[in-house]
Write a structure and sequence with these properties.
Elements lengths: L1 E5 L2 H17 L4 E5 L3 H14 L8 E5 L1 E3 L9 H8 L20 H15 L2 E2 L2 E2 L3 E5 L23 E5 L6 E5 L1 H5 L3 E6 L5 H9 L18 E7 H8 L1
Helix pairs in contact: 1-2, 6-7
The structure holds 6-phosphogluconic acid.
Length: about 240
């Protein structure tokens, strides 16, 4: 595991974008799972603003690690956020975008999306393999859309499952731990002081770390990089 600490969240976005560019341009088809949240938003702005012409977008296939069960035009949709901040600003073939249909029945969609992963992605040990899974971590230690109160979904045998946000009750379709941990590379982007305590517990394996889904991000053979800003990393350095 590697930990990169940047001064600000904008610097995190820059560092991750450079890492993304290197990886993505180094191969013909690059399969990436995106996440939602505030940090990816500034990453997408950076990618579109600085690397619009420097990345071979036609080689990149976009998937989502999780999606909220809402329509693709809803302000809560991770797909909409990605369209607004990245996809509408780059030259990318429509066929390279594999979105979760948040407007459909959640359970049926989890099954359908799981099959898409089976059919489209190369496999390792019979499990679909992403080149890169981009993750965030919530203040409660959740990652993708697997929350502490339903942490057992992480080890579900399906590729995708339905989960529920513990406060709002909003349903989500999310990939499971076997897909996350089978990736060639995993990037965990975490910014802000609100995350510092969980970052400390997880990285130092202290206190309640085992109850946070983000602590289960442990690639079986790939690379894991934490991209942190100073605020999120403050309890690591003290
Ligand atoms: C989602 C996410 C989620 C997110 C974290 C961190 O759709 O809600 O994919 O897992 O990455 O909640 O979000 P922030 O970057 O906003 O803290």
């Amino acid at each position: 595991m590697e930990i990169k600490i940047a001064d600000t969240k904008e610097k995190v976005a820059q560092e991750f974008s450079e890492y993304f560019k290197e990886l993505a341009n180094s191969q013909e088809t690059f399969n990436v799972a995106l996440s939602g949240g505030s940090t990816p938003k500034i990453v997408f702005d950076y990618l579109a603003g600085h690397f619009g012409n420097e990345i071979n977008w036609k080689n990149i296939h976009f998937y989502w690690g999780d999606e909220r069960c809402v329509s693709p035009t809803d302000s809560e949709s991770n797909y909409k956020m990605t369209v607004d901040h990245l996809l509408s600003k780059i030259q990318i073939p429509e066929g390279n975008i594999f979105r979760v249909l948040g407007e459909n029945d959640p359970q049926e969609e989890a099954v359908r999306y799981g099959k898409i992963l089976d059919n489209e992605l190369p496999k390792l040990n019979d499990i679909p393999q992403f080149d890169l899974v981009m993750l965030g971590m919530g203040d409660d230690g959740h990652t993708v859309s697997i929350f502490p109160d339903s942490i057992s979904l992480w080890v579900d045998t399906e590729n995708c499952v339905v989960s529920m946000h513990p406060d709002s009750g909003q349903k989500r379709v999310t990939i499971t731990g076997k897909i996350v941990n089978n990736a060639k590379a995993i990037a965990l982007l975490v910014t802000g002081a609100g995350k510092a305590e969980k970052v400390q517990e997880i990285i130092k394996k202290e206190k309640y770390f085992a109850s946070y889904p983000a602590s289960l991000v442990q690639p079986s053979h790939g690379q894991l990089i934490w991209f942190l800003d100073q605020d999120a990393a403050m309890r690591l350095t003290n």
